[in-house]
Amino acid sequence: MSKFNTARAPAATSPVRSEAMPSTVTHQGGAGYARDTKSELFLLAVTNLVGEHTFYESDETRDTRYAELVRQSTLDDPEWTARFLRWLRTDANLRTASLVGAAEFAKARRDAGLDGLSRQVVDGVLQRADEPGELLAYWTSVHGRAVPKPVKRGVADAAARLYDERSFVKWDSAARAFRFADVLELTHPAGGGELFRHILDERHDRGNAIPAALETLRARAELMSWDVTDRRKLFDRPDAAAVLRAAGMTWESVAGWLQGPLDARVWEALIPSMGYMAQLRNLRNFDEAGVSDAVARQVAARLADPAQVAKSRQLPMRFLSAYRAAPSLRWAWALEQAIAHALANVPVLTGRTLVLVDTSASMNDRFSRDGSLMRWDAAAVFGLALGRRCAKADVVSFSDSYWGGGRGTKVFKLRPGGSLLSDVERWKSGGFFIGGGTDTAGAVKKHFAKHDRVVILTDEQAAYGDVGQALPAHVPLYTWNLAGYRAGHAPSGGAHRHAFGGLSDQAFRMIPLLERGHSADWPF
């Protein structure tokens, strides 16, 4: 009998890989599967906002684990780690984790006496003009005042690329430990000409006039010279928007310049030059100021534009946050379209799908200390979006049998013709955030009814049993990890057991790929 030359293809594999049998336990005592370094790093990084407590890990413990994983991955496979950190800052749009990762990459290479790559990695993650100073502030606070040459050179490359008049106006501030001039003096970037000289002059109060070539800075200085009592008169002029734009004035700087509230006239002058994210986060302010419906329609059209959504790289949760913050329904349809565009990679799946959304107490955990969105908000958004794309889906919130009136689970009925944002609000108001423990294996056993696949959105910290063994081995189990803790609740990487993670929709592309029998690789 032939053992290898058969028609049956090997099972497709996925990049997040764990051991085949559990060797540890989750934070709740369930069977825990350890992952390899790259897999643990990936799942932690794509859910890590750095410096934030989580339900089971302090900020110090979590940040230390992240730094150690970056350093180990750098030594094991520096090229992979370099590609990963660049992707983390660009496609994944996670700023702080990528900056910390680049610094730790350089530290690991330096400690090991290895040359090359660090300069390019540091330069590659710095994508905004405030970030060179941010990376230097991290390095000096964690690793001391001595900054190695590869880090200096990477920062210098980024400063030469990112520093211009408008970024100087927007980001330089006395409130920062490393101002633009400090970065220039420490790293000595090439070029810069009159702008860099002026930045140094201003930092050291040399009193030199702004060069004629620096038109934006001269225009801003002219505005700042106006008497405070005359400044609102600018908005009586038809060219107010052009004047502000020429001076590089953001909405934040205009608020300080006026030394008072922004009324409708001011907002309407600012809106044409505001960035996508700035408009998204100010919808409530537009309403409270009484911005006209005509201007609101222009904002709504931009918010709903798929090209603008893609260019902005906003995480889906940003649109839910804006929807909850804005008191007017005039934004609702635009935000519904925008979140749909942000979730474009959620696949259309044939057959029957069981979608399990973890709403245990540990998922009632803020992504950041100053934020209002919880991990179970993200789980609900992704789970409901997937449910709406499936040919037939059963969407279930789960915790354990001690909660939810003794049920431990609650089935959510998807209404034909409904919308994702209204689904999420109905989920919230309808008692689908249960709280309590995490009986993931029990929820799988209770609701699995010969589905073609099971998708679980969770932090994986199951309390009972072995989730990997809770359904037949031939049924694909896809775990979407929203917290990045060390131990997983099921094996992953092959044999119909796969794990993904993150706060964007990118990894959803792997599900149809795996179901066509193709192995999936890292998204970078």
From TrEMBL:
Residues 24-351 form the TROVE domain. The keyword Cytoplasm applies. GO terms for cellular component: cytoplasm; ribonucleoprotein complex. Pfam families: TROVE. Keywords: Cytoplasm, Metal-binding, Ribonucleoprotein, RNA-binding. GO terms for molecular function: metal ion binding; RNA binding. It is found in: Cytoplasm. Its main location: cytoplasm. Residues 1-32 are annotated as: Disordered. Belongs to the Ro 60 kDa family. This is TROVE domain-containing protein. It comes from Amycolatopsis vancoresmycina DSM 44592. The lineage of its organism: Bacteria, Bacillati, Actinomycetota, Actinomycetes, Pseudonocardiales.
